[in-house]
Amino acid sequence: MSDYTAPVADMLFAMTEVAGLGAVRALPGCGETSEALVRHILDEAGRFGADVLAPLNRVGDVQGSRLENGIVRTPAGFADAYARFVAGGWNAVSSAPEFGGQNLPWLVATAVSEIWNSANMAFALCPLLTQSAIEVLTAHGSPELKSLFLPRLVSGEWTGTMNLTEPQAGSDLARIRTRATRDGKVWRIAGQKIFITWGDHDVAENIVHMVLARTPGAPEGIKGLSLFAVPKFVPGRDGQPGARNDLRALSLEHKLGIHASPTAVMAFGENGGAEGYLVGEEHRGIEHMFVMMNNARLAIGLQGVASAERAYQRARAYARGRLQGRAIGAADSAAQPIERHPDVKRMLLFMKSRAEVGRLLALFAAAHIDLARRHPDPSTRAHHQTLVELLTPIVKAWCTDAGIAAADAGIQVHGGMGYIEETGAAQHLRDARITALYEGTNGIQALDLAGRKVGRDHARAALALIGELAGLRPELAGRAREPDFGPLAIPFEAALAALESATRWVSESWPRDPARVAAGATAYLHLFGTVVGGWLMIRAALAAQALLEKGADARFPPSLLRSKILCAKFFTEQDIVLAPALARIVMHGGTTIAEADLTAL
User: Which of 26, 180, 414, 576 is the most exposed place for a label (fewest CB within 10 A)?
Assistant: First the structure.
């Protein structure tokens, strides 16, 4: 199997030349985040990912986590790797300094997180959920809860989980039945939750479950839900884990992939009620939980990027070493590396472009998170927060679809060996497949984009972003005579027009025919992600060309810069050109779906 190498130079290029590290560095509290510091952090994270986490990826897949006599045991090496992860301070990268965090920009934390997910996605899910718990407690926890939980969650000594789904509810959270009853200063939680990622394990001394539950007399539906922090071990007066709380893992799911990540069925309150603490206000649990969910959705989108990158690295290594067939047009009949065959070239370019575009989308969103949180002007913060909310379903769904498609292509590059587990290609697809399902299926993300973010907003944020995309026209026009950039302008212009037309149609149609809009929502999200991703990709290519024209740049070798131009050309020719067809599906392809009577099938 090929080793994993963190694409540090690609990440740094995306951050400095496209996503806006310079603008982030100018924000309050970010002045010390120099390019040199970021490179050092990524280099160190890359070493940890390659040396510690990546070797456990196959181990975790084969062994899996298991439930033995009520105790969840993770695969060999995971507990030690997690202890080293915590000791290295990696869990605290982006958190507030008052709780032990390093206060680094979200842009940097996002790049670091890609490394963990590429190296070992099942492992990375544990700190991913912990970070989401930190987010919601930071936003809505009382001073007492922050003092109790945040220092240990930030350090990683304790981990966090998200408990929403129940057997009868699924994605319909209005049907949640878990109950919370007041007992003096605490609440007693009783109910069952399913699909709880890292719901129980042996790598940390305590687990803080963030649980949605219904209080007595609460309104029906999602407006009656409240959010509670429910620890596995109830902290004593000194804050250390004390008595075991009334909760346990009933079972672990047997899954297609991410075998090392223990996905638990959790029971709360079998013996009187698990002790929990109200987070935020009663009956506002769904609102508070969305802080956690949206953080996780962006992180899951990044998992798609990580899957594409890891699958690409493996497929590229195989294609360079596998000799088979004579290359078309070759002078001799000797067997050639399969990377020289046109269809294998196509697949490798497809995988590479998916990783590149997805990374740009994720880092672009991360930079706007920093601007939304740290900019001194309130109206500017609000503008960037609106953009983050618009981008969240796009990053989650487009990037995870891309990661799955890239992992699938990776199997195809390997040919028959891709279907054999020993090559490792199959694991990437099995692991990636969940990303389109959890934290809201990609269909739910598409509906959120079309209905809430565009339809209900009257497309204000979407059209503003499209206007920003149009600002690329002059620079492209200035290079119209160049062979690498001249062919990009017409497809990009057509794609912009298609996205604008589809966006206006969604905005106008949503109030009168939401079912028809919903039927085309997945195509709309794919269109939006493709056009915004293509815009970022062309910007990357233009930046690369400018650096090539300046001459030697120690940060980015010429081969890397040329790869940006190559990927932009491929993505334009293969994906951006499809934008008008996608727009037509959005505007005209939903009627049959909306009106279909499936009993006729």
Answer: 26
- Among all chains, which residue has been given the structure tokens 């004390």? 242
CA distance 259 to 72: 13
Measure the CA–CA gap between 70 and 66, rounded to whole angstroms: 10
pLDDT at residue 117 in the model: 98
User: What is the residue-averaged pLDDT of the chain?
Assistant: 96
Rounded mean pLDDT, 339-362: 97
Q: Residue 158 pLDDT > 80, yes or no?
A: yes
- Name residues whose C-beta falls within 8 Å of residue 109's C-beta, 6 or more positions apart in sequence: 93, 94, 366
Task: Report whether pLDDT(539) > 90.
Answer: yes
Q: Which of 68, 439, 493, 573 is catalytic?
A: 439
Q: What is the SS3 string spanning 292-308?
A: HHHHHHHHHHHHHHHHH
pLDDT at 600: 83
Distances in Å between the alpha carbon of 450 and those of 371, 435, 520? 25, 20, 9
The tokens of 31 are what? 């002045």
Q: For 64-200, where are the alpha helices, taking DSSP H only?
A: 78-87, 106-119, 121-140, 143-155
In CATH, what is the architecture of 8-155? Orthogonal Bundle (1.10)
Q: Give the CATH fold of the 159-283 domain.
A: Butyryl-CoA Dehydrogenase, subunit A; domain 2 (2.40.110)
Burial of 219 (0-12, 13-18, 19+ CB in 10 A): exposed
Q: Which sign, positive or negative, has the C-alpha torsion 506, 508, 514, 515?
A: negative
DSSP state of 376: S
Query: CA 360 to CA 364: how far, in whole Å?
Result: 6
CB 410 within 8 A of CB 431: no
Domain limits, the chain: 8-155, 159-283, 441-596
Q: What is the pLDDT of residues 515-534, one digit of tens each?
A: 999 999 999 999 999 999 99
Residue where the block lists tokens 């893992």: 249
